[in-house]
Design a protein that fits this description.
Layout: H1 14-21, E1 25-27, E2 29-31, E3 34-36, E4 39-49, E5 52-56, E6 61-66, E7 73-74, E8 79-83, H2 86-106, H3 122-147, H4 152-198, E9 201-203, E10 208-213, E11 220-221, E12 226-231, E13 236-243, E14 255-260, E15 266-279, E16 284-291, E17 303-311, E18 315-320, E19 325-327, E20 330-337, E21 340-345, E22 347-352, E23 356-361, E24 368-370, E25 383-385
Parallel strand pairs: 1-25
Antiparallel strand pairs: 2-24, 3-18, 4-13, 4-17, 5-12, 6-8, 6-11, 7-10, 8-9, 10-12, 13-16, 14-15, 14-17, 15-16, 18-23, 19-20, 20-21, 20-24, 22-23
Helix pairs in contact: 2-4, 3-4
Length: 386
Amino acid sequence: MLAISACSGPYSNPKVAAKESQPPLPVKVQKAVLATIPEIITANGELFAEEQATVGAKVPGRVARLHVDLGSVVNAGNTLVELERDDYEFRVRQAEALVQQTRARLGILNQPGDEVKPEETAIVRQANAALREARYIFDTTTRLQQEGVVSKIDFEKAQVRLQGTEAQYQTAVEEVMQLRAQLSERRAQLALARQQLADCVIKAPFSGAVTRRQASLGEYLPVNAAVVLLVRQHPLRVRLEVPERQASKIRSGQQIGIRLEGSPLQRWGRVLRLSPAIEAQNRSLLIEGEIPNQDGALRPGSFVEGTINVNPNAQGIAIALTALVSFAGIERMYVVSAGVLEDRVVKTGRRLEGERVEVLEGIEPGDVVVLDASDRMAKGRKVTVN
C-alpha cells in the first residue's frame, strides 16, 4: 500500500515561493531617532487692528483742504484735513487785545511777564498817597484840637476823611487783585482761541492707513463730525479660539504663527493676552497675540489659521515623506528587520520642513525605515540596504 504524504514547507505556498525566489530588492533607509519637534496647537481666528479710531473735528468749520483718501498711509502727526481758519484767527487777535488791555490797566504793558505787586501799580500808589495825606491831616488836626486851636467838628472831619481814604486804599488793592485774576482768565481765553485755531488742522493720532474718508471738500463739519477712519497696520492683533481640552497648555509669551487662508504668507508673533474664562457656547479659550506687519501685507479682518508653539523642546520622530504609502485611507511604512521587509500601519501628524512628516504611532526609535517605498514592496520580501 502506497502512502501519499502532503508536501510542506515555505515553497509549498506559491506566493511565499515567489518572494523567496525573487532577488533582494535594493532600498534606501533611514534610522528612526528622536528629534526635537516642537508641540503646537492649531486654531482658527481673525486679524484685528491694534488701534482703530474715527478721527473727527474738535471745532466746527468748513473743509478747506483734504490731504488723504481711501488707502492713504500716514504717520503720526501727518495732516489729514484742514478747516477754514479766518474766524479763529480773528478770535485769537481779539483775545490778544483783551490781554493787552488788562496788562495796560495794571501798568505792565512793557514788562516781559505778568507778575505784578499791588503796591507797585499806579492805582494803589495813588490811593496810598491819598491815605498818607489823610493821616497827616488827621495827626495834625488831633494835635491842634488838643491845644484848642481847631474845633471838634474839624477834628471829626479829619477822622472821617482818614477812614474814607483807608477804604479807598483797600478798594484799590482789591481792584488790582481783580485785574490780576482777569488777566489770568483772558490768558486762558487766548490759549483756548489759539488751540481752536490749531485744531483747524486735523492730524493723525497714530501711524496707520485710512480705511474710510467721510468728509468732502467744502463740507461744513460740526463738532465731533467724523472725518476719516484710521487703523494701525503695524502691529496687528490676532484672536484665536483654542479648544478647551488644549487651553491648559497656553501661556502668555508663547510663539504664535499665522497663515492666511489660500496664501503661503506666514508671520510669527507672541501670545499676549488670555481670556480669564472659557466661552460656554463653543467650549473654547479666546487668546490674543501680536503679529508684526511692517510691510502692510496683512489686512485687518482677514481669516487666518494660527499655530501656537506650546512646547519648543518636545521630542518626536520625523521621517521623509517618500517613506509614506497611503491606500484606502490607511497609511503605512516599511521597516527592514533582519534583511526582510515589515509593513507598519502608522499614524502621522503634521508635515514638517524638509519634506518630512511627524510619525505619532507605528514607528519606534531604532527602526530602519525604507525611504523609497513603492508598490513593488511587500511584507516578507528580502532587501539589501544601499
